[in-house]
Design goal:
alpha/beta; 34% helix; six-stranded mixed sheet; single chain; Rossmann fold; elongated; Nucleotidyltransferase, domain 5; 18 helices
């Protein structure tokens, strides 16, 4: 009988679990080492019971799409060793991911993929989410006689021990420090889109080097935005699957509706929900869709959770689709000497400072610049949960000396930028500008600074101008990831008259780059050519120069 901790006594069996499920007729024996590894994994999982839902009490019967994923991950080998080291299965909610994850974890703990003293983990965003796969594994173990006799469950620690091979399974939450020093043989990352940062993932995967055939499997629904580890994996899967990148160690299966697909069409639902009409209830899907069509706030969650689209649940200023449609390339060198307008959004002591240049005469080209204090970049990255260090390596962010923003460094860079481009005006917010002006005077640097209020009066026309430029395709930002991240965070605030402005308080994350860009476009739109008075003997009239 199964053990339940150090010194635990055998647990009395109930009638419901007194017999393990019999192997279905025609199903292979997973212990037969003459079978291929994918067939052994499939056979192992099909001996496991279904513990919840309308199919509870039956044996697991893998569908073809599930078998295809297992074959793609465990099939490719070289010299008898599995090639795939990282696997991604991204699909909408309620498509049976927890049972797949639990079955694979058991396969590596005590099944065909087990190794002596293996370390098996499931990792999730928080303690409650981490417990889901653990509870599913326990429910299976309690219904399989040989597993209950062999595996020791420690519920308090969410730990399972195999007394025969010395392997262990443990459920981890987002305490990244706990992952240091581990040597995982298998990790399943559950709903990785909800993780707070990527440190836990990096610590777990970096600890796999000591293993001969390690494997990390990431399962879950897409994130709502680009700046997320799940988005990184989904995008990489697209490159591998298209042949743009050759990587035999990575496999990605992504079930997602195209962003331009009709979200209310049942054909769209079936295309991205492989279990729909099987063990995912189609009537429930219809109910969710009907509610989303009546309640606009539910459209985003429906598309993200049930169609697996990278769509934010919140209502933001610009849609991702419209913004990305303006991702035309920008060559900074070709813009040297060209007239442009700028917006400068100064930061607090250790925050993001942004400058955006807008070139209306050059197809609406945009050049953004960002600065952060360099001495605490890792801490700032942990707080913001975005890849600041990676962006710095790509020269998308400039790191100033010290732990706080160095205005003198930024002033000198502004002078270099002014020398390269024909700055017609630099819009600024009054906040903290006196510190900058003092340093400009000390350095002997002159810039065409123009005060730009942050209230509805000044920002409303600028917001309208930015929106018109994006929707009209009259802007190209080069797909800058920081600016794209800022745009995804933008929330609009409106007054009773319908005037709009960007709201830093309501926006969930940083929007500094878009604030700077809004001021730049607003300044370009409101500044007119100076006028000259011309006199003649008949009348007084005004002409432009």
């Amino acid at each position: 009988m199964g053990m339940r901790g150090p010194g635990a006594k055998p647990k009395k069996r109930t009638d419901a679990v007194s017999k393990p499920p019999k192997r279905a007729r025609g199903t292979a024996d997973w212990r037969n080492d003459k079978l291929s590894m994918p067939d052994r994994v499939i056979a192992f999982m099909e001996e496991l019971p279904i513990t919840a839902g309308k199919l509870a009490g039956q044996q697991m019967k893998l569908r073809e799409w599930q078998k295809d994923f297992i074959k793609a991950v465990y099939g490719p080998q070289r010299e008898g060793k599995r090639l795939v080291r990282t696997a991604l299965l991204s699909l909408p909610r309620k498509n049976g991911k927890s049972q797949i994850a639990a079955g694979l974890a058991l396969a590596h703990l005590c099944g065909p993929c087990a190794e002596m003293r293996g370390q098996v983990y499931s990792a999730a965003s928080d303690r409650n989410q981490a417990a889901i796969i653990f509870k599913e594994m326990v429910a299976i173990i309690e219904r399989v006689e040989w597993m209950e006799e062999r595996l020791n469950i420690r519920s308090f620690n969410k730990l399972i021990e195999d007394v025969e091979n010395g392997s262990t399974y443990e459920a981890l939450s987002s305490d990244a420090r706990k992952a240091h020093g581990l040597s995982p043989s298998f990790v399943v990352c559950d709903e990785i889109a909800q993780w707070r940062g990527r440190e836990l993932y990096d610590n777990l995967t970096s600890g796999m080097d000591a293993r001969e055939q390690p494997l990390v499997v990431c399962i879950g629904t897409q994130a709502a935005d680009d700046v997320n580890l799940m988005s990184e994996l989904v995008d990489y899967a697209g490159k591998v699957n298209s042949g743009e990148v050759v990587d035999e160690t990575f496999h990605g299966t992504v079930y997602a509706a195209p962003i331009d697909a009709d979200p209310w069409a049942e054909s769209t639902w079936h295309a991205c929900n492989p279990a729909l009409g099987d063990f995912k209830d189609i009537q429930g899907m219809k109910t969710q869709a009907e509610q989303a069509q009546r309640i606009p706030a539910r459209v985003g969650p429906f598309r993200n959770l049930h169609l697996n689209q990278r769509v934010d649940a919140a209502s933001h200023f610009l849609s991702r689709e419209d913004w990305l449609a303006c991702s035309g390339s920008v060559d900074a060198a070709s813009l040297f000497g060209r007239p442009c307008w700028a917006g400068l959004d100064l930061s607090a002591t250790n925050d993001l400072t942004a400058l955006a240049l807008y070139f209306p005469e050059d197809g609406g080209a945009v050049l953004p610049f960002f600065w952060l204090p360099g001495d605490d970049i890792r801490g700032l990255e942990d707080t913001a949960r975005v890849p600041y260090r990676a962006w710095a390596k790509e020269n998308l962010i400039e790191l100033t000396p010290g732990r706080t923003v160095d205005y003198r460094y930024i002033v000198r860079r502004l002078a270099q930028i002014a020398a390269d481009y024909d700055l017609q005006g630099v819009a600024y917010d009054r906040w903290r500008i006196k510190n900058l002006q003092l340093i400009l005077a000390e350095e002997g640097i002159e810039l065409p600074l123009v005060e730009f209020g942050q209230g509805f009066k000044d920002m409303a026309p600028a917001v309208d101008a930015l929106e018109a430029a994006v929707l009209g395709g009259k802007m190209r930002h080069g797909g800058n990831p920081i600016l794209t991240w800022n745009c995804a965070n933008c929330v609009i605030e409106a007054d009773p008259a319908g005037n709009r402005k960007l709201s830093k308080k309501r926006s969930r994350e940083k929007i500094d780059g878009v604030v700077a860009l809004t001021m730049a476009i607003g300044l370009a739109g409101r500044e007119k050519k100076p006028q000259q008075l011309v006199f003649d003997s008949e009348s007084l009239f005004v002409v432009g120069i």
